[in-house]
Amino acid sequence: MTMTYSGTTALITGASSGLGAEFASRLAARGSNLVLVARRADRLEELARKLRAEHGVAVTVLPMDLGRAGVGKELLEEMATRGITVDTLINNAGFGTRAPLVEEDPEVIASEIALNVAALVDITRAFMPGMLSSGKGALVNVASTAAFQPIPGMAVYGATKAFVLSFTEAVAHEAKSSGLRVLALCPGATRTEFFDVLGSESAAVGRMQTSAQVVETALKALGRPGTPASVVSGWANRIAAGVAQRLPRALVVGIAARAVQE
Asked: pTM of the entire structure?
């Protein structure tokens, strides 16, 4: 079946910039109504006004901090109160940290795990029954090429993205007999605010892609007759991910450590 966008609703987390904002623009252009979720209300409102004017779609703005327990239920109840049925879920919210583990702030890495892992699972679990019933949308969880090998110096971030990839591929198998498309999107270095939060671009391995290139990869995968459980954005990234899965583990870890050094 062809992926349907017009008349459906997509909920996008981390929608105020980068991949989230790009997903919002691309889905709105295809006729999808939107629910935009992020912390920065001003950025969300600005994007919502632009998309309403350009595409005539309904855009709901929800300024929220997603890194807390029970956020999935909270979002689901908010949608029910507003009479909104979510057909597509884009779990994009997340951030990274960069330092040896013993130098990391425990509170910051707890927040990283809460947002990158716990919130993603909680929101997916909350909305998936309805999306399975609808059978005409998609679940896209944003992982990373960091998922394919341990990364000394970014140990927590890499592990959270490995979780996202493993989790999403398992859920894709569970949903394979339904009409719901489930995809783990694995971008490499992408020109977004990620590296501003990280504090350095030295961890960017390979040529940076744009948000438009990464989202195009996801949309093409969703448009295939058999949507893959995961996709790596960029041919060089696909080669690197494949090599990382075939080389001895100790060698891969050493290469990853050198790649993200200052």
From this structure: 0.91
